[in-house]
């Protein structure tokens, strides 16, 4: 297995380090205990069965632990399953780290940070520039680590920054084609629109929702943060702040999707469209990358459950 | 006309002071200018026509002015219309005031304030009590003046406070019937739930939406206000604040109705139900008050456009 | 296991009487027969496996039978499962009864009956009082036994009467807060609104839908019953009867929820709101009772599939 | 005007008897009173203006009165309007009757009655035959007079009987093509399905909804009537009665359209489909009859607001 | 097993030829391979387990193969399951054919072809007759073989032709009851409406969707085919062709169901209704045929997931 | 009036040529005839009243005629209205043309044609290039004249070509940002996606829907045209053609919006998004151009009836 578990085929022998994502105990019909593990590396994940698991195994093999595992890829109900032949916890001397086993953005954190800085540098409106810069400073570390979502699109390390930078690329072009667009406002909206996720989501790996994420959601969280930050920067009450809060509030497009107000400012509408377009391109390109010409992808839940066709004439 | 314009019948002669709510200019098919005025007193409103209006009339008879008018109630397209025979602007010596011509809550401001104070006094949780008290103090004056909405329910002077106090009454009973309910949390939620309207709406009379009302709405405005107030009071980060923000955020019940999160805490669900119940009772009782047993009310827009029947056996 | 199966934890030994709710036969991959039983007592239920089941076992262990069972609580796919070590049918000498193993209302039948009688006694309109009393007399026995639903809310013995009595409590308070409400009409509507369920549902235990329940439903059944009873009592044609039928017909609130007419009378609207409020409080309080502060409940299907949070500051 | 007002064209002189359907008073911008009348004969209706109307005119020209009118057809906002030149109330000596001015079914009452009798005669199931016959006897007079609806389809004298007889024609054919269908049940369902309209609607001319029509609707009314009639005929409790009630209850097809239960019996589904088909054919044929090949009809509200095209190749 | 697998009961011994519809490999918890087969004959299908499957078994027992199998019908999770005792592939000398194991229309291909020819013979409009005849000629072979759908209704060999002929029967009667209907247009619409399925579906057995079926669908495919055929026959541009394309385009009734235009011509509306009626009768009659009086059918997915009741009084 | 009627303010005198867009006759309450005209020039339109219109006026002043008109801009019910003082039909010697009075794209036809040619020149796939080129050639004249819609967006002369060229601009950028996108396919889809409108719409001025536009719509028309053209060019059956038809078919995004299949190919999804984005930018920019900073636009019907705010900080 050179390329990673995401590329392993049935029958292949496995002998490598992997991260335990989930672990649960079961009993065979004969009453014997076994463990079902979801293992992952940076390229994908696989279900694995550890038969005849002992109490010690149960205590050792828990989520977020790295293991050295050897075994064979079988098929079970149409899906690949790893039959574990030998397994042990990773040792400090193995020099492996959780961050080696998670998917990352295809662009490095340094480049992402450069692109963000460049966009802020282009901005001319001082109010918009100041508040944007203040947030980048406040959240810099996590912003470069967090995914943009728990699943569906940009659900990998640095996914949030990758999504923002990608959207800034579209915004730059849209501004050239339609010069009426207020670039500063659009840039500020793009950079801040999802920062509430840094409080809505639990972290970089095996991401879940925090309590305030569940009870408030990233949109109201960010609207409030802008209010607090504006007071701190003593720019409270300027119209830019209100409009920026509106951009954040409305960026999901309609009430049913979590925006109590629909976009009512030109740049709010564009922010919503660019967000949609980049999320869709990310999902589509990654799904189509895994199939051959003449085939359909799996159904993509966040694309209305559609399966997409990859034309064969492109070969 | 003893009882007010809301009780005038067709054919009746009118000779009284009224407030101009709206004014617009028109031309007869013969090309002559006239004014269409919407006049009101504390009991209701009526459309009036001032034929052969001069330029001076146009300048004199504008919204928010009080006039002395005599005329006759006619019927036009099934609705009453006032034919103006004589009209003049009110003079300082007439000793009439805008506040005489607007509908008011059936309970006085003093009593409403007492009830609010009493509820806060009942609260035992210090965090919830402190933040509630701080808002009452901050907004006391407008809270006792504003309507709860521009139309449909409690759309009169002190309507907001009347709605809050009425909801507190239900809450007290619900807490007795279901003692599991956290009364402090429910009281705080009720008192604060619509305070964002003090920034969403333009004022007490001929109420319209402010720009921040249109772009953000009273729910996100109030969530942000709680965040800012908590920081001021140095109770930021306490769980009560988060839960209280959730109560405000979710009190419209579902995303389509403006709450990005549905109620996910018991008291949030109850707050939503009590809000609904009091708004509906207010609309129903006022509409049924205007019809006789055996009749149907007009269609009530905010009650899904239903016309309600008043049984005749109640006579 | 002192408190009942609803409180048993994994690893605990069980030795008690339980009622078989469901039983089905399976084959292991080795081709050996086993029985899957759903067992219950008054506090909850658990899945159990009886391995190597004989033909005699299959005949003995069928739904509605009481058994004496000893075994151990294991975990299977995240849910508790009882591994049966020994089992036998209950004997007459064991002196256990089906009614010992089902959930019951937290209020006794006698108290429920007293509360119903008291409400009827308060009524002053003779027509409404007579027909309500006639139905209580006709259905007294089942009314005090039936659940209010097969699942979701008040789904226990005497659940229907408990729901009615609880709603009467809210109605009494609502009438005090809004004295325009016709208390007699509201009381009659509350007491009769769900009596059609006595024909829609099959009984007290392992409740299912009858054929007329499936083809007509409890609402049209009850509208018809009122018509028949009014004829019997020779009060057919009085307006109270029509209005009462309307209250029953409209109490689900809208066509999509089974009411061909929405509430068009004040008390019909209130009946609908009180029904909703009591059903929701019942679901919420019972679900929150099972979780600790700082936790979420399971998703509640009849509450739009929401999981509710129990604040930790309430500790 | 030989053919009737439904065929009059702009510019044509009118001199004939017509029935006043609606009358309302207005004031010109000069303050002079006039009457707006909706006049009709058996072929259609037209709006008419009576300028300079006196108090006597107001008292004379009221709904349900027949008048002799002469005037000219003008066009107003794209619709024909009758300018009244002379008008007088009809005299007893004119020998004109309200029934001359209303639209009637294209088939006589005698033939409709014969067809109903014939269908009942074909039925073999004694329970279904008895109850159907009993209702025909109870309602014979009104059944042959009432429209099937206030508007949209079969909204003319004898419209209800015409609709029933037309549906019986389709049912006979469907039974031949699919012999599994229970003809007796389907016939009984068709004959009774809309009889509740005899209580839901106010009468034959200028039909409106009764109070019980508004509060209960024809479907629950008829389900109840079947229950009462079954008790009278002492066939209460037979399964045919339950199934027949289900057919009535479900014939609108789904909850949103007023059927709390959808069709759950084969003949209930067919009844729903035949009802739909005959109503649609009635609307379509009458609308297409009024346009020329190559033209579109007006938008038909009850056909989802569609305008239908009449192909020109059919000429 | 005389009547076929659709009629086999639990405990019955099986010894017959069957067709493999699906095959998948699994592993027991002990790690031993087995095959899960879906087997079918002309009366129905059953799941079967072949334990201890070898690599040879895997290669031999694949979809579309006929096998000779003996075993016993067991029950597994409430559904019948065949336990295979012996199995071998069919030999040429067995003289069994795939077509023996699939469901067929209850009417022979010859009779279906006669009925189609007869309908075309009745048509008088030369344009409509020519194009209909041309398509019958082009697609004759497949038209008599294909199902009308992959599931739900007429999902058997010759199902498409059976559906068309059945619809023509209804159309003939509708035309007699409503003589305004253009019979030629309706016949042409019925015969052609689903011919696009010959390109949308993959074939007669184990039918799936083709790529053009997935990307275009049978409706746009057939609209295009009519355009191409009209050009070939040099009748392009005649109004009949446009109207016929409209009938095809609109026959699903509304946009959500795949018709970009709703029916806007009388015969288009009727075509839609007849299509619906025949599909529903086919589903209903076949489902009710499998249950006894007093029972409900399984839920029928394409009938809004309803379970239908078969009255017991019909016995 | 230098800038055109779109910029005229109340009280301004008008003396210029205008095109009659609509004309209808009315009667004053005194019974005198007048004409209501909708007049337009290249900047907008206004309602005008011609009082005391003669029969000759009626015959002269009809849609599509150019007139010389002098008058004054009044206000009527809040909207500007032109009071005509003098009017005459335009003469040949006036040298004015219908094309002078209609709105046009802000880019010339020559430039639009160059941009189209350039895009086709960039394409490398011969099949896609050939069919695109063939359509440009077939429809060149109308493609450069037609609007993209009857209202809402690009509803002006050359609007269709302007929309296409604008979309090509976005596509070029999207391809650079996401190089996986097949540019040839996307270009071909963009150029052809709305060509069906050349048959759906009646023409350049006072555009309405043709009969085939109403009965089929531009999407199925274009899918068929591609089929016919592919046969002509002998490239029928190549996968590019199928995919291209899919792009056209799915470009409205979902069934409710007229696409029987949703986008199932990457470029189909992008085509839909770009179409949406350019249409929205066109509507937004034109609406915001008409208001001042700090104001809201009128409600934009095709933007979900939203009124957009123009921030004042942009001044």
Automatic annotation (TrEMBL), chains A, B, C, D, E, F:
<keyword id="KW-0378">Hydrolase</keyword>
<protein>
    <submittedName>
        <fullName>3'-5' exoribonuclease YhaM</fullName>
    </submittedName>
</protein>
<dbReference type="InterPro" id="IPR012340">
    <property type="entry name" value="NA-bd_OB-fold"/>
</dbReference>
<dbReference type="GO" id="GO:0003676">
    <property type="term" value="F:nucleic acid binding"/>
</dbReference>
<keyword id="KW-0540">Nuclease</keyword>
<dbReference type="InterPro" id="IPR003607">
    <property type="entry name" value="HD/PDEase_dom"/>
</dbReference>
<dbReference type="GO" id="GO:0031125">
    <property type="term" value="P:rRNA 3'-end processing"/>
</dbReference>
<dbReference type="Pfam" id="PF01336">
    <property type="entry name" value="tRNA_anti-codon"/>
</dbReference>
<feature type="domain" description="HD">
    <location>
        <begin position="163"/>
        <end position="280"/>
    </location>
</feature>
<dbReference type="InterPro" id="IPR050798">
    <property type="entry name" value="YhaM_exoribonuc/phosphodiest"/>
</dbReference>
<dbReference type="InterPro" id="IPR004365">
    <property type="entry name" value="NA-bd_OB_tRNA"/>
</dbReference>
<dbReference type="Pfam" id="PF01966">
    <property type="entry name" value="HD"/>
</dbReference>
<dbReference type="GO" id="GO:0004527">
    <property type="term" value="F:exonuclease activity"/>
</dbReference>
<dbReference type="InterPro" id="IPR006674">
    <property type="entry name" value="HD_domain"/>
</dbReference>
<keyword id="KW-0269">Exonuclease</keyword>
């Amino acid at each position: 297995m050179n390329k990673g578990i995401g590329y392993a085929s049935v029958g292949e022998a496995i002998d490598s380090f992997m991260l335990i994502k989930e672990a649960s105990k079961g009993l065979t019909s004969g009453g014997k205990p076994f463990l079902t593990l979801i293992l992952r590396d940076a390229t994908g994940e696989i279900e694995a069965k550890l038969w005849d698991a002992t109490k010690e195994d149960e205590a050792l093999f828990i989520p977020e632990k790295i293991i050295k595992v050897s075994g064979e890829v079988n098929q079970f109900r149409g899906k690949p399953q790893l039959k574990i032949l030998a397994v042990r916890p990773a040792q400090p001397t193995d020099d492996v780290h959780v961050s080696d086993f998670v998917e990352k953005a295809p662009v490095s954190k340094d480049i992402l940070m450069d692109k963000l800085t460049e966009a802020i540098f282009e901005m001319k409106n001082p109010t918009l520039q100041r508040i944007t810069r203040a947030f980048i400073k406040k959240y810099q570390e996590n912003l470069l680590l967090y995914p943009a979502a728990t699943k569906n699109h940009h659900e990998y390390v640095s996914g949030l920054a990758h999504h923002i930078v990608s959207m800034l690329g579209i915004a730059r072009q849209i501004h050239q084609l339609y010069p009426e667009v207020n670039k500063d406002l659009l840039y500020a909206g793009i950079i801040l629109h999802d920062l509430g996720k840094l409080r809505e989501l639990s972290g970089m790996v095996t991401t879940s929702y925090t309590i305030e994420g569940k009870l408030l959601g990233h949109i109201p969280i960010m609207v409030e943060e802008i209010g607090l930050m504006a007071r701190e920067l003593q720019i409270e009450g300027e119209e830019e702040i209100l409009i920026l809060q509106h951009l954040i509030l409305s960026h999901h497009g309609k009430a049913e999707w979590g925006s109590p107000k629909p976009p009512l400012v030109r740049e709010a509408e564009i922010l919503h469209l660019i967000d949609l377009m980049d999320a869709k391109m990310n999902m589509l390109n990654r799904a189509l990358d895994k199939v051959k010409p003449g085939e359909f992808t799996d159904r993509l839940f966040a694309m209305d459950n559609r399966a997409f066709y990859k034309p064969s004439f492109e070969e």
